[in-house]
Task: inverse folding
């Protein structure tokens, strides 16, 4: 730690404070989660539903794909409605119609404006005022509201069946016929939808905002942004500006003068190290990465096409076998699997280098076992997803073997356990290579940071086990974002930074001191905003103002380090000029340049676009979210994994040279295709929806009427062009990797054992 004490203590202090904040306010999530009543009854005492049946409805919703078919509280897919906003609006309209008939003997639409305003005032009083008795754990509704609930439930029951009158609606929502065949399960699922809408409309005790902080925007009951929402949005913007300014000043005045760059070696030091058996065995990992990548991008095109034709693929009705909810599940899960596999392969490639150029005992066996375990988990989870959504799998097994229903953590719990055990096994393989290196003399600070990130990756995926099938959805969301945000965007980011620094140092291109200092400083900046920034996903998930305040404040700081990534991109690009042999890794370096670009644009600009509470209030659940998700997930982590694959390929096939023509096609077509996808389709649709959400309400921005208008349909068709360009680039890089793995190789160059220190 000598020489880096300030950096280490800064990082340790940041981790201690930020995880303390995350844990302290995590208790708040448990404490203030919207109550699920023991009973919902009418004033006459009729029981409409119970806590048990509401949770039964939650499991029914999970079994049909959950967040992959529409969304709840804004989290999920974007083609079908947000069921919370849609249910709430339909129930409100039903209440107004019933009350108009009872009071005036006329339909609501035929009333005068004064009469309508009077009913809307009554509506707001009825829906926003709590009718939940905490002492008896009972929610009581009057006869009119009970009838409105029944009418709305009847519509949803028909929608999720094969009722002919709603067939065109199901097509617009990309739902297959008879999505949920069991009438009993459809009935309880409507109860779960009702409860999510009740929480979104009812004010917390001693508060003037609802359990979901007045989300969604619904003018009929005066659901609008709270004062706290606006205040913390302004605070986040001010902090962003202040943070960027402070970073620039620190960069200019506080950083030490760069030490002289080391002279580049005449030959690539890593290429002089004898390949170990475990490194030679990594070829199948690279093939798996590319195979899943190709499957994923074709599934992406398939999924996008469903947003146009709904149930068909160019006139062929395939939704009964491969519905939208299934292919979207596979699309996202395949992405997570191939990106994670690329990172695991990078770690396994580094382990023998760290260990002095040799394998620990049985390392190759461990690498082979881990690979086949990955194959089993991927295949098992995909098959389970299919059986669950097809409603073939018994309902009591769906969560465990089929589909959990939660976006990014869709795989059945058994397969999730298998994935966790695989990651822990990878951790063991990595530590076997690292432990011995710590016993050798020399500076081990960079190695310590790399090791810490490996341990964090290995263990923090376990956060997904803190919720179960019937866990309250607010609590589930807290732990789910530990995986989606903290595990992926936090610890994988630190691992990537440390791994690249270690690789460039091992090549003799960067001094150990520069690599270590830069990695420690970057880790501190990432963690400072990234850990508490997890809460920016939870503004409207049944949480209170403190969660919003913490999330808005720290998520603004997440963007701060991203503004200097142009310098990182330039540094990575300029490395290829340091030595002639660097041309052999030009394309991995170009991928790392792309990572820096998309980190700035996708994670930074497009991420902050939806981060302030006032912005997310109107656009949560609209196409602005997948704009950020595609740019950040593929642009950052996808290109990073591909860069790792190409780098490993270059070393495990020493005589293979990248084909510039193929790689230019791969690199530029993927980047251009991604830009086209975002800026000619997803983002324009998102902005048009934004206007509709702000002016009419979220229900309207996601409605069949709005989403099927000719302009939006044309924009969804236009996305096909970007998808095709991207797919061509993806096929090109996969072809290059396959050639490298299976093409004819020349005699290998002489190599000798070299310990990279």
Result:
């Amino acid at each position: 730690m000598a020489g880096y004490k300030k950096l280490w203590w800064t990082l340790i202090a940041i981790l201690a404070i930020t995880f303390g904040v995350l844990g302290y306010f995590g208790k708040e999530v448990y404490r203030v989660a919207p109550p699920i009543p023991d009973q919902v009854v009418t004033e006459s005492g009729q029981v409409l539903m119970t806590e048990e049946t509401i949770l039964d409805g939650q499991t029914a919703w999970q079994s049909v794909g959950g967040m992959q078919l529409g969304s709840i509280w804004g989290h999920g897919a974007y083609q079908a409605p947000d069921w919370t906003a849609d249910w709430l609006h339909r129930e409100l309209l039903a209440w107004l119609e019933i009350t108009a008939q009872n009071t005036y003997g006329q339909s609501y639409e035929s009333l005068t404006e004064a009469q309508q305003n009077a009913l809307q005032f009554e509506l707001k009083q009825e829906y926003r005022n709590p009718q939940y008795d905490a002492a008896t754990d009972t929610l009581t509704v009057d006869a009119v509201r009970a009838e409105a609930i029944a009418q709305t439930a009847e519509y949803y029951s028909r929608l999720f069946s094969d009722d002919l009158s709603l067939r065109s609606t199901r097509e617009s929502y990309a739902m297959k016929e008879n999505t949920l065949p069991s009438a009993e399960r459809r009935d309880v699922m409507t109860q779960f939808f009702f409860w999510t809408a009740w929480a979104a409309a009812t004010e917390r005790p001693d508060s003037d905002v609802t359990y979901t902080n007045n989300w969604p925007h619904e003018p009929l009951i005066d659901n609008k942004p709270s004062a706290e929402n606006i205040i913390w949005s302004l605070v986040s913007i001010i902090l962003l500006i202040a943070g960027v300014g402070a970073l620039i000043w620190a960069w200019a005045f506080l950083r030490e003068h760069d030490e002289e760059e080391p002279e580049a070696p005449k030959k690539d030091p890593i290429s002089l190290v004898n390949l170990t058996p475990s490194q030679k065995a990594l070829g199948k990992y690279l093939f798996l990465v590319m195979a899943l990548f190709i499957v994923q991008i074709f599934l992406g095109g398939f999924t996008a096409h469903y947003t146009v034709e709904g149930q068909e693929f160019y006139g062929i009705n395939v939704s009964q076998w491969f519905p939208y909810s299934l292919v979207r599940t596979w699309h996202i899960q395949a992405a997570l699997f191939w990106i994670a596999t690329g990172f695991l392969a990078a770690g396994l490639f580094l382990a023998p280098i760290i260990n002095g150029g040799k394998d620990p005992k049985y390392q190759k066996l461990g690498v082979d076992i881990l690979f086949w375990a990955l194959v089993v988990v991927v295949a098992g989870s995909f098959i389970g997803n299919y059986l669950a959504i097809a409603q073939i799998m018994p309902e009591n097994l769906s969560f465990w073997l089929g589909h959990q229903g939660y976006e990014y953590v869709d795989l059945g719990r058994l397969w999730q356990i298998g994935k966790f055990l695989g990651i822990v096994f990878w951790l063991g393989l990595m530590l076997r290579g690292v432990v011995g290196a710590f016993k050798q003399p020399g500076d081990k600070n960079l190695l310590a940071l790399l090791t810490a990130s490996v341990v964090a990756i290995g263990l923090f995926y376990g956060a997904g086990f803190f919720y179960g099938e019937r866990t309250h959805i607010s609590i589930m969301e807290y732990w789910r974002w530990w995986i989606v945000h903290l595990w992926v965007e936090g610890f994988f980011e630190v691992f990537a930074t440390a791994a690249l620094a270690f690789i460039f140092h091992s090549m003799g291109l960067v001094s150990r001191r520069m690599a270590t200092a830069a990695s420690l400083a970057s880790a501190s900046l990432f963690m400072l905003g990234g850990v508490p920034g997890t809460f920016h996903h939870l503004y409207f998930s049944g949480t209170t103002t403190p969660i919003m305040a913490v999330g808005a404040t720290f998520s603004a700081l997440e963007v701060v380090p991203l503004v200097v990534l142009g310098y990182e991109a330039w540094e990575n690009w300029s490395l290829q000029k340091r030595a002639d042999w660097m041309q052999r890794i030009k394309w991995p370096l170009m991928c790392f340049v792309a990572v820096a670009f998309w980190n700035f644009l996708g994670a930074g600009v497009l991420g902050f676009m939806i981060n302030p509470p006032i912005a997310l209030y109107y656009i949560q659940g609209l196409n602005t979210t997948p704009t950020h998700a595609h740019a950040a997930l593929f642009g950052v982590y996808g290109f990073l994994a591909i860069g790792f694959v190409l780098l490993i390929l270059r070393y495990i096939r020493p005589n293979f040279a990248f084909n510039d023509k193929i790689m230019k096609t791969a690199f530029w077509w993927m980047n251009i295709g991604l830009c086209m996808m975002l800026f000619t389709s997803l983002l324009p649709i998102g902005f048009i929806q934004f206007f509709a959400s702000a002016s009419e309400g979220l229900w309207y921005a996601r409605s069949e009427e709005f989403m099927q208008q000719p302009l939006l349909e044309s924009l969804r068709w236009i996305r096909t062009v970007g998808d095709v360009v991207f797919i061509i680039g993806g096929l090109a890089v996969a072809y290059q990797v396959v050639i490298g793995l299976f093409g004819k190789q020349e005699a290998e160059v002489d190599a000798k054992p070299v310990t990279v220190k």
Q: What stands out?
A: The chain has a mean pLDDT of 92.
